[in-house]
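quick one, 94 residues, struct below
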Amino acid sequence: MITCLVPDGKPFSQIDYDKMIDDIPFHQLCCSCGAHGTLIRHAYYTRHLKLVNHTCCLCVLRVKCKSCACHLAILLCPLLTAVIILSDPDSLHL
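---
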């Protein structure tokens, strides 16, 4: 997993996530194997997020290291600390 810092308290959406992903200099990131500049966009997966007053769906980017073939998700810090990440929307019980 690669975690990106974002300003606290800022509203968050798929558009914000996509803009932040577009700004990431992948050629400067390091894989957990130690290789630099080897990460490429690989796939997306869907996560349903339960926020304080609503739920939303987010397509999370996965990258692949060309050196070791490791797959990593690109997550934002607020997704790790401020929401419950669920893969099954039926389990939200709202």
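The beta strands are 2-4, 39-50, 55-65, 71-76, 84-86.
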